[in-house]
Specification:
5 helices; single chain
Amino acid sequence: MELKEAAKKIGIEPVRLSQWIEVFEWLSDDMDEKQVEIAQRIKELEERGFTLAGIRRRLFEEFGPPMPRRFLRRLRGKLAEILTFLEGDDKIT
């Protein structure tokens, strides 16, 4: 889902969502429904006056640890390499 669409669904400005993506590892540029849910929770906690540390603690408790984006990007690259190899190998059926 595009950031503008996700931001509208959450009820915030797209620039605010972009800031959250930089701060909270649970979010990424390509938002899915789970990330929209997490962003809605961030908004609720922020409106209730939670600090950045408090929001992080709550997200960890409610959604578990975030997956590091660097790891996921590296994994995606390796999977793309494997797919290219498999698609190019005539002997694999």
